[in-house]
Amino acid sequence: MNIFRFLGDLSHLASIFILLHKIQTTRSCRGISFRTQALYVVVFIARYLDLFFRYVSLYNSAMKLFFIASSCYILYLMKIRYRPTHDPSIDTFRVEYLLAPCLILALIFNYKFNFAEVLWSFSIWLEAVAILPQLFMLQRTGEAENITTHYLAALGAYRALYIPNWIYRYFTEGLVDPIAVTAGIVQTGLYLDFFYVYFTKVLQGQKFELPA
Amino acid sequence: ASEGPSHDEL
Predict the structure, then answer these.
(1) How far apart are CA A192 and CA A160, in angstroms?
(2) HSE on the CB side for A57, CA within 13 Å?
(3) Phi, psi of A201 (to 5 degrees)
(4) Yes or no, beta carbons of B8 and A180 under 8 Å apart
(5) Is A50 exposed, middle or buried (0-12, 13-18, 19+ CB in 10 A)?
(6) Which SS3 state, helix, strand or coil, does residue A33 take?
């Protein structure tokens, strides 16, 4: 565990608490893509199935359980509790266009051709693109509540912070994980436009608005 | 260098 990795995990945790806070205080899931949240459930379940056969640390297991539980809880809030506040007509990104290529990538790029490793690779690729329905929705509405942009910033920062972690681990442990690194760079890249507007507008006290 | 997933990452 190094500082980049730890800050990345904290950022990921923070993003979920920000999202829960947004939904609970506004009593609404307006502006949040259900499709993206559903993809995260798939990502976490696919990757963290190893809870059943691999023990790393208490930290690791607790985080995995938290990410599975919180992502399922968010789906419950969106689909049942605050269902009327969710507008499916603007959340239209076709997720099969993400799922199928990720499955193919996982079948080609994996460290061992067995069920658990292919599933792990699938979850890494899927996580990289799972934000697309959300970004697509943002693009369509052209604006977002401040709290939603803080959620996205924390979520984007998480994988961005893993990049210096991988560099650090390469030099200290000689560890290289080309699949995670490639997918992580793609994932961070998808946030660049968002980060630009976030830093130049939201953090300067303005509203998040995309140019028409 | 060893190549592969660390599996200790989240």
Answers:
(1) 10
(2) 9
(3) -115, -65
(4) no
(5) middle
(6) coil
pLDDT in tens, B1-10: 678 888 999 9
The residues that bridge with A209 in the sheet, in sequence order, are: A143
pLDDT at A195: 97
Q: Hey, how many other C-beta atoms are within 10 angstroms of the C-beta on B8? A: 13
Residue of B nearest to A66 (CA): B10
> CA-nearest residue of chain B to A121?
B5
Q: What's the distance, CA A118 to chain centroid?
A: 19
As beta bridge partners, residue A208 has A144
**Shortest Cα–Cα distance, B7 to chain A (Å):** 8
User: What residues have CB less than 8 Å from A212, skipping those under 6 apart?
Assistant: A142
Tokens, residue A17: 């608490």
Q: Is A9 on the interface with B (CB under 8 A)?
A: yes
How far apart (Å, rounded) are the C-alpha atoms in residues A77 and A83? 7
CA distance A195 to A173: 31
Whole-number Å distance between alpha carbons of A21 and A209: 22
Interface check for A5 against chain B (CB to CB < 8 A): the answer is yes
Q: What is the pLDDT of residues A80-137, one digit of tens each?
A: 999 989 889 999 999 999 999 999 999 999 999 999 999 999 999 999 999 999 999 9
| Both tokens assigned to A86 | 């969710």
Chain B CB within 8 Å of residue A151 CB = no
The partner residue sitting opposite B5, judged by closest CB among A162, A174, A177, is A177
